[in-house]
Amino acid sequence: MFQPMSFFYYRCDWIHPESEEPVIVYYEVDVAGDVPRLIDVFADGRRHCMSVADYVALGREMRRVTSLVEGSFYDGIAGLVDGILFEEGQDRISMTRIAADRFEGEWQAHRLPTPDKLH
Known about the structure:
Layout: E1 7-15, E2 24-30, E3 37-41, E4 47-51, H1 52-58, H2 73-76, E5 86-88, E6 91-98, H3 100-111
Antiparallel strand pairs: 1-2, 1-6, 2-3, 3-4, 5-6
């Protein structure tokens, strides 16, 4: 019997000194710890939606890409899940599991081309 692949969804809040790094990252993670899709949210409101399929479509060396993070996502977040705050220097990171529809809402709202909005 075919079992559909299960995914889990996480929101990472990252407080850090002013930089070009995202302040929120949404992750889609499969049971093996691979991340096929993620959304970076920057302090100025920009969002960057990335998918393994984007890299596969580029061809060349990227055909073997199965995850947008190196190693297992679960190994990387050990001790961070459920809103536990991790502090290192001026960085503060927390990771929270979220519902699939919340991830999809963010993905659909920002993945599709939309007219520029005034902020």
